[in-house]
Structures are given as C-alpha cells and as structure tokens.
C-alpha cells in the first residue's frame, strides 16, 4: 500500500468557523508529513454584495438591541480582521511545529479552490461552524462544495464521534484503492479500529475481503474488519450512525457526487473525501 505523496497541507477558512482550532489541527498534519502549511481565507464577495442591498441588516439573536443596518465598510473591516487573525494563527502554528508556511486571500470560491488545490495537496476545510441561537450551525461555502474542491479533502468538524474508530467507504467495483487506503493509513492512530464498508458486487467475494485485509496488514494497520456489502447510501448512513466513528473516509467513486454531498450534509464527524489522482 502506497501512501499518497502529500506535498502541502492547505487549510481553508472563512468567517464562519473557529480559525485557531482549524489551523492547529492542520499544522499537526503538516508537521507529521514534514510539508509546508498554506492558508486560504475566503473574503466572500457575495457577502459584501449582500451588505450593499438597502434592506440588509445584521441580527443579534442573543442581544436584539445590537441589531442594525449592515454596513459594507464595517463588514469588510471585520473580514480583513479575521483574515489577519488567520494569518497570525498560521504563522504561530507553523513556527511551533518547525514547518514552512504561506497565506493567501481569495474573493470567491472558484478562485479560492483553483488557487488552493494543486497536485499533491490535501485541503483541510474548517467545517466546525460556530453555533447560532443555541444549536443552528450554518454550513460554509467550502463545506457545501467539498466534493468538487480537489482530489483529497479533509472536513474537520471538531465534534462528532469520540470512539477510536474509522469508517472507510470503498468502491468494490474498482481495482485500485491505494490512494484511499494510503490516506486512511496516514490518518489512523494506533488505537483506531478501521471498518471497511464496501459497495458493489465484488464486495461479496471472499477474495476481495482477503485482499483488503492483506493490504492493511502489509501497511502495519492491525485493527481492520471488512464488513458485509452495503446496498445503498441509506445502508451506509445507518452503519456509520451505529459505528459513531471519529472519521469517515470515502472513496468518492463509491457514492457519486450526490451521495457524497448527502453524507457531507448529514454526517457530523470528520470526513475525508478521496477522489482520483
């Protein structure tokens, strides 16, 4: 089993999440692989355009008296301050881990995605949004487009399952799994139990299960089980809910774009999306 050749850890943030927590987690990964850390902050021109509309207002649910007109300059200054905070957090985390770092600001998601992701990158998306009004959590633009952002995307939720458990959703109809298996090996801890959840006709074949176990054994990942084949997305979601893993790794060809987006929207632990190289 060959681990994917990670050349850079790219951390994607915006105004929605806790920048410090996201950056620290990405820096740990970059230090583990001894690669540079690169930060991308989405300034979100659409949000600024919204502030230009005459009926736009900001609303404070906890302190209604603080609600008022949404001023463009005020919002732009706030975004600039958050970007500066992310830059400082990346610099501090990189210095602490002894790795190189860089930083960029982007005005919209397409330019951010194209400028952020290159061959050999793993894109770490801060998907642990701050709660509003008690429990509601807005999804970031990064999270909503996760399936289209690159070949390897890690959604960090900073919540979800606490068990030392990883669920791996595999496309049993393809022969080459080195990329996703290597990524799981790179992220698995010594206590993690890896549950392989195969989809496809070949999943019922004993040879497939034996091949999976052999590959993990050769990669020194001992705690692996290959489960019976799952029929569809509903089966996958139900099994993940019962396992309550800390991480779900998905070979995106197994579910297709709609299935991947459904899991992104309905799964609360960390998600690793691995597509074709």
How would you describe this structure to a colleague?
The protein is of the alpha/beta class and 277 residues long. Helices cover 38% and strands 23% of the residues. The chain is built from nine helices and twelve strands. It has helices at 19-33, 45-52, 72-97, 109-116, 141-144, 178-187, 206-218, 233-243, 256-266; strands at residues 8-13, 37-42, 57-58, 68-69, 101-106, 121-126, 152-156, 163-171, 193-199, 224-226, 245-251, 270-274. The strands form two sheets. It has a ten-stranded mixed sheet with strand order 5-2-1-6-7-12-11-8-9-10, with helices on both faces. The chain has a two-stranded antiparallel sheet with strand order 3-4. Helix 1 (19-33) packs parallel to helix 3. Residues 132-136 have low confidence and may be disordered.
């Amino acid at each position: 089993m060959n681990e994917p050749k990670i050349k850079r850890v790219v951390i994607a943030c915006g105004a929605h999440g806790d920048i410090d927590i996201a950056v620290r987690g990405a820096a740990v990964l970059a230090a583990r692989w001894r690669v540079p850390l690169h930060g991308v902050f989405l300034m979100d021109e659409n949000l600024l355009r919204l502030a230009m509309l005459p009926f736009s207002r900001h609303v404070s649910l906890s302190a209604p008296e603080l609600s008022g007109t949404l001023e463009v300059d005020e919002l732009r200054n706030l975004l600039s301050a958050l970007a500066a905070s992310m830059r400082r957090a990346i610099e501090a985390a990189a210095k602490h881990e002894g790795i190189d770092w860089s930083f960029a600001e982007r005005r919209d998601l397409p330019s951010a995605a194209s400028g952020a992701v290159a061959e050999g990158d793993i894109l770490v998306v801060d998907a642990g949004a701050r709660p509003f009004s008690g429990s509601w959590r807005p999804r970031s633009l990064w999270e909503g487009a996760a399936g289209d952002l690159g070949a390897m995307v890690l959604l960090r939720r900073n919540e979800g399952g606490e068990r030392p458990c990883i669920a791996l959703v595999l496309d049993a109809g393809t022969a080459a799994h080195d990329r996703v298996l290597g990524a799981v090996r790179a992220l698995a801890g010594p206590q993690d139990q890896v549950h392989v959840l195969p989809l496809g006709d070949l999943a019922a074949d004993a040879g497939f299960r034996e091949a999976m176990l052999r590959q993990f054994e050769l990669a020194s990942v001992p705690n692996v089980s290959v489960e019976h084949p799952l029929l569809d997305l509903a089966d996958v979601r139900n099994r993940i809910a019962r396992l309550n893993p800390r991480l779900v790794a998905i070979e995106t060809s197994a579910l297709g774009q709609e299935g991947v987006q459904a899991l992104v929207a309905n799964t609360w632990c960390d998600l690793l999306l691995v597509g074709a190289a």
